[in-house]
Amino acid sequence: MGTEAAAAVEGKAKPRTLDQQRKRLGLYMTLPAQLLLLFIVAFPLVMQLYVSLTLWSPLDGEDWYYAYKSFTWFYNYIDLVTNERLWDAIGRTVLIMAVVVPVEFLIGFGLATLFVDSFPGKRIFYSILIMPMMIVPAVAGYMFFMIFQSNGPLNQLLGIDTVWLGSPNLAMIAVMVADIWQWTPLMFLILLAGILGVPEDQLKAATLLGASWGQKFVRIVLPRMKTVIVIALVIRAVESFKLFDLMFIMTKGGPGVATETISVWIFKLTFNDLDWSYVAAIGLSILIALSVFAIIGLTVMARASKRMNADVVD
Amino acid sequence: MKSHLTLANGVRYAVILIAVIAALFPVAWMATMAFKPVAEWTTTVQDLTWLPKEPTFGNYEFIFFGTSDQLIVSLDRSATGPIFASLVTASLGTLIAVVAGTLGAYGVSRFGVGKNLPLGVLQLRLFPPLAVLIPVMIMWAFLGMIDTWWGLSLIYGIVTLPFAFWLMMTFFDEVPREIEEAALVEGCSPWRVFYRVTLPMVKAALATTILFVFILNWSDYVIALLLTRKDWVTIPVYMNALTSAMTGQMYGAKAALGLIAVIPPVILGIIIQKHLVRGLTFGALKQ
Amino acid sequence: MSSIELVGLTKRFGDLIAVKDLDLMIEDKEFVAILGPSGCGKTTTMNMIAGIEHPTAGQVLFDGVEVQNVSARRRGVGFVFQNYAIFTHISVYKNLSFGLEVTGVPAGEIERRVADMAKLVRLTHRLEWRSSRLNVNELQRLALGRSAILGPQIFLLDEPLSNLDAAFRAEMRTELKHLQHQLQQTMVYVTHDQLEAMSMADHIAIMDLGVLQQFGTPLEVYNKPANLFVANFMGSPSMNLLPCRITDEGGEVVLDFGAGGRLMVEDESLLALCKKAARQDLVYGVRPENVTLRRGEKEGRGLSLGVNFVERIGARSIVHLGETDHEIKVLEGNQSPTKVGETLDAVAHAGASHLFDAQTGVAIR
Fold first, then answer.
1. Which of A175, B127, B155, C9 is a plausible cystine mate for C22, CB 3.0–4.6 Å?
2. Largest Cα–Cα distance in chain B?
3. Which residue among A29, A114, A291 places its CB closest to the CB of B104?
């Protein structure tokens, strides 16, 4: 009202109220982010769907928009479902996730509990322990590539002559070790923040009520850290599903296809086989599958948080 | 009591020491490798030493000038280009992400517009980049952005937008609205309030966000691998090329360059240590 | 039976001495308040009694048995935190049963004792609630109940009323005192609020900068402050404290207040104090309620001072007179006729004067 009146007195063209002004500014301010999002989502998705329904490859010598010439409906998708290499890749990806995430969680949690109270050297140890996650992943890949050579320092240290990256199972283990090395610090960091977020007075109160260290951990610390733990696990699970850099640099999916994860397989299909319409189909399938998982996950979490906030405790 | 305490502390130090050794082991190996002459790059397990027997800067000479006395091969391109490319694209990508993210976060946080953005940008982070690789590659080729600085910067800006957006959003949410409202009442336009009042208040937060996003962009490998070919190849992709038919893996050269590549993010990471948790969890957790 | 004895108790945090050489005897079933400004070491003292902090030196004895090496978990002390430290992620019932569960009390008994305690602290209708939903008054009662359910012989309370609003604080003071009677425990109560200490405690321990200043009944510490700190800390408005010099003028004892005037000492008890003074530089103290303002007194009978302003606080009026180091306050009735600008003679009541050594601050008795 005030602004309107003022504008009227001034007699200038200032027809907008403050609210309208703000709304408009808000739209302008969100525009860049919206455009970037649209740019990377809308057009690529449509194109990906289009290409995935054809047999087009850059080898055809024609631009992608002529792909309709080899239109095949869902041939690529049907082929995918029966492609063992896909299921093997998914299996390996899930296996890696199932191993590294819990291991990183346990080591990270264990280390975090050691950093709750202060002790001499805490800061410097802390800085060293979180350093691995700041190393460029590709460089970490090269580091571990060197370390796991059969004439490398690890074998020297252990006094063995194992061929790590050349044998299927050991190569998997080597990559897992590298991933655990790089990402345990993340768990450590997040979980430590979570532990430190537990009110100290409540822990003291529990002590004075006669609770042992273990009882405090189970009854106070863990329940209070539920959200933090879920966040840490989800972030690491999502990231480990994307695992590419370490694997590609250390093994290139080899020996043979023994360490081929989804990302590595897609890369090979794209650059070695140039089977782009097939890759488009895989990519879209993954997007859909992950979206379904995400929606289920969010629903479950929303329901859980609703229950958490409910009046009566069950 | 006392002895029990020291025992517990002893165990603590022992465990931490093991963790510290494990954390440093690969980095230390690379760091010493960077100063080893060719003869020490690969040897038999028996001859392997941690410290270089004859320390040399030959590896750096080699990657920067393309030749070295110790090597018969020579490089057709030195590491200067890729280092420059990494710096330029990571910086510009950070600029795009932080500008779009900061403006967007403020719009969503204060004016209630763009309600799709928070989850929308988060989705970008959920999907493996390789799952959308084909359309992106085709698009980039179509727009002539493959192997260009602007093409790579743009995708970096998009990929790290979620972090910039969410970080700034949580920082904005912590700024008391009363100050902004007071400025509005005094007749400042909403844009001036943002530019003159809010932004100066979140200066430190903005700096943190910039450093964090820069680390992420600097750490990329796969995107540059897909969208660059030669001129704008970044450090990690260039490292991949440090092999030759004659000598195989050029460990020393790779280590020398790797050492350069890890220094900026480690230093920046230590600077923003306090905010790493917030950054990595999209602002969901604070330290 | 549970007495608490502190012997030479000392706690250092690095260079900082939080508590210094503290000796204190708290009898069984007594209600003792530890009173002092923030940073005086009162909470640290209590934490050492509870076992949360380990003393740097000295002993803590319960019933004559040393406990400073017994862990907090096994000391069996009830403790109510300033912010209550309620486990907000679980129900009221689970909060009450926590101590019983972790110490392995059988399920049936837990149920019975929780029900009893819930009744005592009037939370029966809230048992199934998530405790984060309780209001601050209920939280306070839950905190008390959660500790009391274990039947501790010693109960420690760390400023438990400081989060409450004024009206409810008065109510809780009565309730706490009542609860102590019912539970028959030794209670130690930390506070910075002298009113709480005065109204509830059997004995008050006043601390400053980690050192015990005085230990006595509420009236003792109010009427016979041991030193300048206690004199200044207890009472609102606080005691008038005026630096002065003692002189002898032809057989007459005179207190010289410099620009504030001179006072012939005629009051017997003050005269006795003056004779005990070892030094000339003293601090003279008198409570505002023990001063009467008169007009036209004989020179030297009182201090002649100008009225600066009159603060009317309802039941009473506080008259401020004089300047800088001889500024005094006088309590008068709410109909006080005193006006700003008047010059009046402030005369202390007989037997109500205190003298302190200016250098050591110790009261002369």
1. C9
2. 78
3. A29
pLDDT at C213 over 90: yes
Q: What is the pLDDT of residues A195-229, one digit of tens each?
A: 998 988 899 999 999 898 899 999 999 998 988 89
How far, in whole angstroms, is CA C338 from its chain's centroid?
A: 33
Tell me: the pLDDT tens digits for B132-185? 878 888 889 889 999 999 999 999 999 999 999 999 999 998 888 888 888 888
Count Cβ neighbours within 10 Å for each residue of C73-103 and write b for 16 or more, e otherwise. bebbbbbbbbbbbbbbbbbbbbbbbbbbbbb
CATH node for C4-86+134-233:
3.40.50.300
Cα distance between residue C108 and residue C110, in whole Å: 5
pLDDT at A307: 66
Domain count, chain B: 1
- Closest partner CB to B27 (pick from A33, A135, A270): A135
Number of Cβ pairs < 8 A linking chain A and chain B: 273
The gap between the terminal CA atoms of chain B, to the nearest Å, is 32
A117 reaches C (C-beta below 8 A): no
3 state SS of A20: helix
pLDDT digits (tens, 9 = 90+) for A168-205: 899 999 999 999 999 999 999 999 999 998 988 899 99
Predicted pLDDT of residue A14 = 52
CATH for the stretch C240-357: 2.40.50.140
The 10s digit of each residue's pLDDT in B44-99 is 777 788 888 888 888 888 888 877 666 666 777 888 899 999 999 999 999 999 99
Where do the domains of chain C lie?
4-86+134-233, 240-357
Local structure of B50: helix, strand or coil: coil
Q: Which fold has domain A86-275?
A: MetI-like fold (1.10.3720)
Closest-approach residue (CA) in chain B for A225: B285
Q: What is the pLDDT of residue B70?
A: 66
Chain A interface includes C140 (CB < 8 A)? no
The residue segments making up the domain with residue B197 are: 80-234+261-280
Across the interface, whether the CB atoms of B277 and A190 are under 8 A apart is answered: yes
Residues of A within 8 A of B235 (CB-CB) are: 136
At B188-225, the pLDDT tens digits run 888 888 988 899 999 989 999 999 999 999 999 999 99
> What is the least distance, in Å, from the CA of B44 to any CA of chain A?
6
First to last CA, chain C: 36
Residue B127 lies in a domain: yes
Q: Does A206 touch chain C (CB under 8 A)?
A: yes
Residue among A37, A147, A186 minimizing CB distance to B29: A147
Whether residues A22 and B111 touch (CB distance < 8 A) is answered with yes
Does A307 reach chain C within 8 Å, measured CB to CB? no
Identify the bridge partners of residue C249 per DSSP, sorted by sequence position. Answer: C252
Which alpha helices (DSSP H) does chain A contain, by range? 2-10, 18-52, 75-81, 84-114, 122-130, 137-147, 153-158, 168-196, 200-208, 213-216, 222-224, 226-241, 245-250, 262-268, 276-309
Segments making up each domain of chain A, as ranges: 86-275
| Closest residue in A to C95 (Cα–Cα) | A206
* ipTM here: 0.90
Instruction: Tell me if B52 is assigned to some domain.
Output: no
Predicted structure pTM score: 0.83
Say how many residues make up chain A.
Answer: 314
| B131 vs A contacts (CB less than 8 Å) | 266, 282-284, 286-287, 290
B110:A147 CB<8 A: no
- Chain A residues with CB inside 8 Å of C79's CB? 204-205, 208
Question: Which residue among B117, B218, B240 sits closest to A30, beta carbon to beta carbon?
Answer: B117
For residue A255, cis peptide bond before it (omega within 30 degrees of 0): yes
Say if residue A314's pLDDT is above 60.
no
C70 to chain A, closest Cα gap in Å? 12
Q: Is the peptide bond before C237 cis (omega within 30 degrees of 0)?
A: yes
Instruction: Assign C315 a pLDDT band (cuts: 50, 70, 90).
Output: confident
Instruction: Flag if A294 and B132 touch (Cβ within 8 Å).
Output: no
